[in-house]
Specification:
This protein is mostly beta strands. The chain has no helices and 8 strands. Strands 1-2-3-8 form a 4-stranded antiparallel beta sheet, with no helix packed on it. Strands 4-7 form a two-stranded antiparallel ribbon. Strands 5-6 form a two-stranded antiparallel ribbon. The protein is elongated.
Length: 80
């Protein structure tokens, strides 16, 4: 298992290093910080392959912290 730091918290937990399907967001925030929600953004840069254009993609996942300041969420990884 490997941890990847993202601005100290939350973090990405990698169960299997080379298998994105085993990656999770994990957080445990101090309730005194009064954070209402977490917004995760997954981005893919635009690119070209020969004469094909691949547009940039951005996906947002919002997690409400109304009931708990800690949790875990599987990264939404699609298959190509």
């Amino acid at each position: 298992m490997n941890w990847v730091k993202i601005n100290l918290r939350p973090r990405v937990l990698k169960i299997e290093e080379n298998n994105p399907e085993t990656y999770y967001f994990v957080w445990n925030l101090d309730p005194r910080d009064q954070v209402a929600a977490l917004d995760f953004f997954l981005k893919k840069k635009r690119g070209y392959s020969g004469t094909n254009y691949h547009p940039a993609i951005q996906m947002k996942d919002e997690i409400s912290l109304d009931t708990s300041s800690y949790g875990i969420r599987k990264l939404p990884i699609g298959k190509a």
